[in-house]
Input
Amino acid sequence: FAPWSDPHAVPLIRVENVTKRFGEAIAVDHLSLDIFEGEFFCLLGPSGCGKTTLMRMIAGFEEPSEGRIALAGKSLAGVPPYRRPVNMMFQSYALFPHMSVEKNIAFGLKQDGLPKGEIAARVGEMLRLVQLEKLARRYPAQLSGGQRQRVALARALAKRPKVLLLDEPLGALDKKLREETQFELMDIQHELGMTFIVVTHDQEEAMTMADRIAVMDHGRIVQVATPGEIYEQPKTRFIAEFVGDVNILEGHVLGQEQGLWRVRSSAAAEPLTIDDPDEVLHQDQAVAIAVRPEKMAIQRDRPEAGSQNVLGGEVWDIGYLGDWTVYRVKLDSGAIIRVTRANRSRYVENPIDWDERVYVTFAPDAAVILAE
Ligand code: ATP
Output
């Protein structure tokens, strides 16, 4: 499933050079984006970057100040929300407190004047989908946060929109429930084959669920790619730092040797060797080298002379997370970096301790170069 890599695929939603202004403020700034049928698409970005505004324009609650949004090739300009095959599930689930679960789910279908039998069939189908059959007669106040979230989802899905927009759908849930519900949402989306566009500021959530992620900043899209590409090949320093943990080593380019970049950095005594052949760089250019903490190794013994990418330092502190241990290492340059190590067995003989002299290493292909 990768319609975005097919140049002939027709997007379900096309956002073309859209700008949205509120007075002087620019919420969305010349933004273009294609979303394909059946995609689980996440809009990810810090607070205020314009995610919700973009969603509200797709839903029809706001009109673009400039540019155009089309669905299956037809412009949506002037089409009111209820005439769009798009449904939006809001952050506050806005369930009707005086209606039972099944009445909540049936509400929109009744308004649309569907026959009674059809409504009952769809409500039954939705209750099964979100696993709330046993709670059909309860009222919202008698449900947990996670159950309410599922009712809201069922209600939004019951109308069978082509596109479901979800604004921070899991924001109200605690961490554990949120993680479980992420997988449920993916399963439901998969089963229905519907297009989901989810707004979140939680990068782990986006990584877990999305087919593709659009990372937004200041009303613009900075990168659209699969979670793997965003994490392994971030385009900018902002993305590298926003998605996952990262160490940034600053330096300048010495040149290229056998297809590998040589970079002088204060973080290491010897020039660094980086395998990032797609970058076009010139000598003396200032660059940032991004290395994820789990792609670095930490050892007590000095690596052999001639080893690549050796950073000497002292263990500043150690955090034990159960599945991982995080070492913060103060490099000889004074910079502090993070190295994580998976705890693969329960006992570690002679573990590295606070204040020890250590060497951090990483392979040339563990790093990416970001032009400054
Ligand atoms: P959050 O994650 O905090 O919800 P967001 O990325 O969804 O943020 P938006 O709600 O789209 O961001 O807001 C983008 C910018 O536009 C913000 O600076 C916000 O203050 C501004 N904005 C949004 N709606 C309006 C409005 N109705 N009137 C004026 N300014 C607005």
